[in-house]
Amino acid sequence: MKQGRTLPELAGELARQNGAKVDTITRQDVLEMRLEEATTGNVPALYIPAHGVSPIRPIAHGQIASRLGIPKRYYDLMMADQPELLLHNVNTWFRSNSQRRMVRLLDGNARAFLSDSCQRIENFDVAEVALGVLGEMATDEWRVVSCEVTEQRLYIKVVFPKIQAEVRRVGDVVQSGVIIRNSEIGLGAFDVTGFAEVLACTNGMVIPDPVFRRAPIGGRNGGGEDDS
After folding, report:
1. DSSP β-bridge partners for residue 24
2. Rounded CA separation 38/32 (Å)
3. pLDDT tens, position by position, 139-187
């Protein structure tokens, strides 16, 4: 599996993002889509009264289309060929609904457009707890073999070299480990999955064993900023 970042690189990027992200909970009918100048031409951006204008990232575009009931294929076609028509459609539907939405911002960009009931599970907190637990173990008892944080997910794969056993048939050795996943933008639940990896298998086959899973849904949020 691709290594991605080193563990120090991952920790550094998570700390940077933790200080650069902002969440706002606001009524949908006060939001507005605008076209803003960029190096690649005019791009759709989201105007939020308390934060100004933020360029919209691809995942947030899909979430806006879904929540407004606009077919994504048509949404993309308007964005590519008729951006003014996209603005007219989106802003018309924005103004038709006063429900509260959570908009997640990172580095000045709108990265997620979610329900206000979305329960935020932060990548920084997940990694801090996970690595804190590992740090209490001897350094030769665990090894991070792959870790990465992308716009969509946090991923950490850890193996425990000393926890091995022969299974299936004599000579088949499996090694235990755990995979930790999280998404801050609504693309999946916080998930901790144990696994047994067949060491002799060149394609890296693993046998999953679910341990913990928590979906990012719940009651209405009281935390974060509220522009309503």
Report:
1. 103, 225
2. 18
3. 889 999 999 999 999 999 999 988 776 665 555 667 889 999 999 999 9
